[in-house]
């Protein structure tokens, strides 16, 4: 029965249908009939189809909250910033991105260069770097899609990680460094979009109400002041783009921002515009517009100069702005110190201020596109009120997802409805009110001329009165300044005519005699002499930085002591003598000494010369300015034209007859330290093994990075020094093990003298180095510290700078505390209370490992062992003390090892002793700052702990 019950249904299923329905018995009887199953199946299928359809509709709609609140945050949680970026681009490229299903409100219409576009919200460069997802981005509702930056040759950009989310600030820091697949690859993608049949499109975007822009960059290995990469980009992409953006504002390509210099920018725009005008044919029968993208970190004076160049070059527009190298004080994220350009809401005030300044210096015919910190419709309207014809977004798109454009447009419509205006009306009112006009400049020039005439009259009267006083004998005791004003003969110099002022001619500098306390000021008459400048009565660089960037005066102590400056050079070329580079040598005519070009840090395309002692460094302004606010304010801020000429040298371009003026900045630091700092800025810090030679390099870098506010380099230098002067016991033990290992191998590794470490920590405000340095010093006797013999480890020639009186007192108190700790340590071990508490002595566990294998029947045997151990430790301590060594950490370590090494008969006691020694060493390490009164600031009076 069992076999037939099992196999008969199987036979029927295999060879033919059953004549009677087969019933299967179940443990629980079901009341449902089989005739209801099709209804249930149909219901489930219908529900699934409807749900899938709704999800598809919901997903394909860019307005969906699914993107902003589910998919985009999930992507941020799972993937890092750069990987998320790539996934988003690939998704849009594959056509899987959603679309904006709504038509733009008529109130959003705007016009650029006489052409109408549907809305003023565009996407900035940097998202689609290689032109992979143009159509997917246009489908999201953007009216302006900008691809790039694209460089002529492929390049990988900077090493990863290079993108950092500042989620607390809704911001991003990136240092991509123009990763690009090159002109050829991107150009082939643009050509693939072009339809093979039909009339030519009206715009390169292939949409009648949108614009396609290509952002042009330059390769990292191209010369800093070369314009060839941009000209090549114009010729390559001009036929396939509506707008070409000349990007001279990225902070992540060395030397790029230097092209914002007035002379270089003028040369660049002339060549780019000429290449555009010479394009043979274009896709749309309209030649692309040329737009310049600038940085937000420019000062007002520099923006005014840039505006003058833009007006003369007659380019079509400006984008304000790129990312910033500044870091606002209200940033909360821990990634804010990462190097690179900052974007997002924190930079809105900086970009908006730059836009307002530039709008007042440009005519209404040159539109400005606003970019920087725009994340809402209200932000966009703020830019419109400042004169921006349209806006671009980037960071908020990365945080909010594909619905960003539609959301901003909807919010903008609401804001415009409140005011009862259209976007075009708001922009036109602002542009008409704020834009530059020639009459404003004429009135400003007339005002300057009248002020110059008034000043000339006052100086004439002053000179006459001084001359009369000098003729009368000058009995008042006031120094005669006639010679200072007019030369050796005492005559008043001729003032330039107003016509020469109008022509912006620089009058010749009068010769000046030396009048104490004014320093001697001379100028060589040779045509090959370098230009000079006189001391200007301007606020100090430290006070300017403090007021502009909100940095405390305490942080500028080093800078205030010896700030950099541009001053009288009094340098001249000596064509009779050549240096190692084959160039004419340079002589300081004040001292007659020859100054040397640095062998490695002299770049022919450098845009600033730094002089330290008798060494000249020709480097790039942008490389200095991107790392340091000090150098940014020193070399990137514009100065009046005469000051610019006076604070520069006329440097020949190689062996040709062409020359250019390069600013000279005096750094009152050692040439070795400046060389090490600049090398670290260009190549990255390369530190050694914390020996004396390495310390000399690292301490110089730390001192100058603190002085010039290069925070990233300061952090790296401190981290390196902390390997030898750590804040934790484990690193200290590692340092000691390395030193002992080298000593056993017969190799010498001398750490720097603790005096130099303590003095450096005081100078650069690095208190974390002090405890280890004081402790290391306290291990030696006073005679070894203050009167070392040549055989002593602390002996140095020449001797290091002495400790301050307060630090000497701290050292004395610390040494006393150290000796007390050692004696207390040995006594506490002898009492046995720490040993017995952790491991009770019972016969099953308390076994002795002697040769006979006997068992300890009581703790007396172990107590005897400890007594012997205390005696041995005391002998070791006394022996070390005779040699001048006082090291509590070493004594505790030795006590923990002696039992297991020499008295290892009892396993329990050996383990207990090792654990006890480890606990004691941790306690000692934590007490070190209190020994030397380092936790009490300037108060070194004895305190009880």
Task: Record keyword descriptors for this entry.
single chain, 945 residues, alpha/beta, TIM Barrel, eight-stranded parallel barrel, 46% helix, disordered N terminus, Aldolase_TIM, flavoprotein, Dihydroorotate_DH_cat, Dihydroorotate dehydrogenase (quinone), mitochondrial, SKP1/BTB/POZ_sf
pLDDT under 50 segments (min length 5)?
A: 1-35, 474-538, 638-647, 833-858
Number of strands: 20
Count of separate DSSP helical elements: 34
Proportion of residues in extended strands: 5-15%
CATH topology (level 3) name of the domain at 105-434: TIM Barrel
| Strand order in space, largest sheet | 3-4-7-8-9-10-12-13
For this structure, what is the CATH homologous superfamily of the domain at 105-434? Aldolase class I
Descriptive overview:
By secondary structure, the chain is an alpha/beta fold. Among the domains are: 105-434, TIM Barrel (Alpha-Beta Barrel), CATH 3.20.20.70; 804-833 and 858-937, no CATH class. It is 46% helix and 11% strand. The protein has 34 helices and 20 strands. The strands form 4 sheets. Strands 3-4-7-8-9-10-12-13 form an 8-stranded parallel barrel, surrounded by 6 helices. A 7-stranded mixed β-sheet has the order 14-15-16-18-17-20-19. Strands 5-6-11 form a 3-stranded antiparallel β-sheet, with no helix packed on it. α30 packs antiparallel against α34 (907-931). The longest helix has 34 residues, at 438-471. Mean pLDDT is 77; it is low at 1-35, 474-538, 638-647 and 833-858.
């Amino acid at each position: 029965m069992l076999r037939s019950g099992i196999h008969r249904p199987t036979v029927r299923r295999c060879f033919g249908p059953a004549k009677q329905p087969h019933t299967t018995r179940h443990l629980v009887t079901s009341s449902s009939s089989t005739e209801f199953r099709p209804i249930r199946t149909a219901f489930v299928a219908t529900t699934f189809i409807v749900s899938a359809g709704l999800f598809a509709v919901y997903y394909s709609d860019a307005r969906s909250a699914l993107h902003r609140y589910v998919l985009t945050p999930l992507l941020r949680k799972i993937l890092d910033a750069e990987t998320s970026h790539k996934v988003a681009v690939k998704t849009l490229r594959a056509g899987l991105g959603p679309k904006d299903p709504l038509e733009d409100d008529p109130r959003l219409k705007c016009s650029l260069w006489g052409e109408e576009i549907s809305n003023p919200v565009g996407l900035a460069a940097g998202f689609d770097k290689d032109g992979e997802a143009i159509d997917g981005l246009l489908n999201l509702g953007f009216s302006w899609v900008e691809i790039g930056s694209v460089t002529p040759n492929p390049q990988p950009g900077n090493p990863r990680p290079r993108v950092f989310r500042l989620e607390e600030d809704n911001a991003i820091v990136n240092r991509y460094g123009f990763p690009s697949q090159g002109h050829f690859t991107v150009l082939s993608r643009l050509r693939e979009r072009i339809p093979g049949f039909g009339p030519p499109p009206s715009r390169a975007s292939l949409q009648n109400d949108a614009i396609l822009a290509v952002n042009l960059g330059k390769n990292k290995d191209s010369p800093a002041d070369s314009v060839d990469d941009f000209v090549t980009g114009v010729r390559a992409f001009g036929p396939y783009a509506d707008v070409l953006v000349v990007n001279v504002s990225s902070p992540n390509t060395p030397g790029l921002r230097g092209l914002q210099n007035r002379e270089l920018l003028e040369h660049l725009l002339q060549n780019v515009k000429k290449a555009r005008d010479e394009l043979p044919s274009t896709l749309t029968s309209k030649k692309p517009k040329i737009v310049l993208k600038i940085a937000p970190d420019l000062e007002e004076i520099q923006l005014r100069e840039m505006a003058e160049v833009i007006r003369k070059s007659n380019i079509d527009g400006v984008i304000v702005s790129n990312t910033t190298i500044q870091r606002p004080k209200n940033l909360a994220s821990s990634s804010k110190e990462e190097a690179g350009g900052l974007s997002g809401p924190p930079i809105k005030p900086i970009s908006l201020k730059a836009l307002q300044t530039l709008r007042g210096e440009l005519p209404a015919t040159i539109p400005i596109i606003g970019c920087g910190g725009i994340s809402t419709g209200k932000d966009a309207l703020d830019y419109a009120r400042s004169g921006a014809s349209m806006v671009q977004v980037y960071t908020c798109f990365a945080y909010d997802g594909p619905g960003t454009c539609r959301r901003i447009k909807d919010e903008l419509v609401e804001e415009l409805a409140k005011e009862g205006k259209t976007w075009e009306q708001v922009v036109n009112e602002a542009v008409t009110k704020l834009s530059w006009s020639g009459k404003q400049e004429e009135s400003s020039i007339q005002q300057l001329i009248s002020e110059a005439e008034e000043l000339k009259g006052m100086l004439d009267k002053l000179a006459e009165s001084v001359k009369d006083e000098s003729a009368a004998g000058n009995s008042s005791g006031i120094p005669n300044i006639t010679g200072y004003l007019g030369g050796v003969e005492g005559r008043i110099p001729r003032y330039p005519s107003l016509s020469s002022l109008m022509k912006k001619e620089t009058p010749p500098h009068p010769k000046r005699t030396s009048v104490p306390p004014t320093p001697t000021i001379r100028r060589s008459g040779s045509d090959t002499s370098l230009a000079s400048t006189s001391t200007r009565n301007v606020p100090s660089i430290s006070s300017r930085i403090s007021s502009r960037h909100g940095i405390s005066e305490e942080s500028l102590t080093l800078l205030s002591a010896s700030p950099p400056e541009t001053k009288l050079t009094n340098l001249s070329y000596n064509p009779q003598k050549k240096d190692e580079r084959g160039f004419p040598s340079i002589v300081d005519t004040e001292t007659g000494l020859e100054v040397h070009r640095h062998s490695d840090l002299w770049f022919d395309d450098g845009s600033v010369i730094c002089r330290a002692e008798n060494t000249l460094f020709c480097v790039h302004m942008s490389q200095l300015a991107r790392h340091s606010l000090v150098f940014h304010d020193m070399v990137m801020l514009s100065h009046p034209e005469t000051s610019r000429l006076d604070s520069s040298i006329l440097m020949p371009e190689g062996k040709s007859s062409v020359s250019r003026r390069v600013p000279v900045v005096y750094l009152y630091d050692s040439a070795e330290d400046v060389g090490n700092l600049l090398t670290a800025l260009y190549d990255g810090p390369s530190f050694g093994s914390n020996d004396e030679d390495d310390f000399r390099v690292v301490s110089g870098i730390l001192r100058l990075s603190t002085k010039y506010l290069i925070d990233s380099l300061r952090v790296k230098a401190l981290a390196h020094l902390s390997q030898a002067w750590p804040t934790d016991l484990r690193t200290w033990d590692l340092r000691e093990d390395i030193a002992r290992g080298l000593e056993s191998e017969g190799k010498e590794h001398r750490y720097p003298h603790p005096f130099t470490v303590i003095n450096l920590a005081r100078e650069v405000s690095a208190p974390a180095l002090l405890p280890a340095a004081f402790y290391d010093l306290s291990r030696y006797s006073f005679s070894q510290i203050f009167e070392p013999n040549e055989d002593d480890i602390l002996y140095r020639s020449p001797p290091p700078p002495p400790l301050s009186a307060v630090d000497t007192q701290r050292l004395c108190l610390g040494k006393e505390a150290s000796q007390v700790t050692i004696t207390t340590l040995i006594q506490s071990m002898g009492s046995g209370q720490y040993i017995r508490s952790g491991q009770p002595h019972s016969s099953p566990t308390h076994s002795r490992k002697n040769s006979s294998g006997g068992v300890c029947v009581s703790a007396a045997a172990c107590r005897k062992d400890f007594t012997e151990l205390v005696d041995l430790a005391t002998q070791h301590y006394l022996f070390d003390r005779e040699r001048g060594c006082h090291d509590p950490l070493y004594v505790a370590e030795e006590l923990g090892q002696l039992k297991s090494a020499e008295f290892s008969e009892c396993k329990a006691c050996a383990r207990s002793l090792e654990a006890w020694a480890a606990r004691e060493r941790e306690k000692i390490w934590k007490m070190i700052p209190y020994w030397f009164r380092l936790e009490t600031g300037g108060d070194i009076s004895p305190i009880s702990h």
